[in-house]
């Protein structure tokens, strides 16, 4: 599958998960999408000087999305009144990010790459995404037994 088709499929999935409003599957899919772009796509694009500025900006937007996801993960029932505001902010930012990639980044990718590049990167993304664990991506320094939502409340 070529890279742009792969990304458009991922974006469509994310849009529909946001529409459903259910947090857990959306969170996992968003983390995996961000990760596959940061680990495979963006480094490949950065080799083209003309693409560097737009990739760096997209990368910063990813950082903000991941920060909001971590904060949403950390919320307790007492934070319920903030949850919707945070989720809505995440949704607006992410949807804007997806639109921008499609509107501004994808045409540049087409302009500065070729079919072989797109096929190779698409294949690498497909393989990488399959073996991604969203928790490991969000909390790389935290052992599995101590992920925030697994820590027992202090007595
Ligand atoms: Fe992105
Ligand atoms: Fe994307």
SSE arrangement:
Elements: H1 3-20, H2 23-46, H3 52-74, H4 80-112, H5 115-130, H6 134-138
Helix pairs in contact: 1-2, 1-4, 1-5, 2-3, 2-5, 3-4
The structure holds fe (ii) ion (FE2) (2 copies).
Q: Can you tell me about this structure?
A:
It is a single chain. The longest helix is centred in the middle third of the chain and has 33 residues. Helix 2 packs antiparallel against helix 3 and helix 2 packs antiparallel against helix 5. It contains six helices and no strands. The radius of gyration is 17 Å and the shape is globular. The protein is mainly alpha-helical and 155 residues long. The site of one fe (ii) ion (FE2) has 5 residues, from helix 3 and helix 4. The site of one fe (ii) ion has 5 residues, from helix 3 and helix 4.
Task: State the gist of this model.
The protein is mainly alpha-helical and 155 residues long. The chain has 6 helices and no strands. One fe (ii) ion is lined by residues 37, 58, 62, 97, 101.
Provide key terms for this protein.
155 residues, binds fe (ii) ion, 77% helix, mainly alpha, single chain
Flag low-confidence runs: none
The overall strand count is 0
- The percentage helix is over 70%
Q: With helices defined by DSSP (H or I, 4 residues minimum), what is the helix count?
A: 6
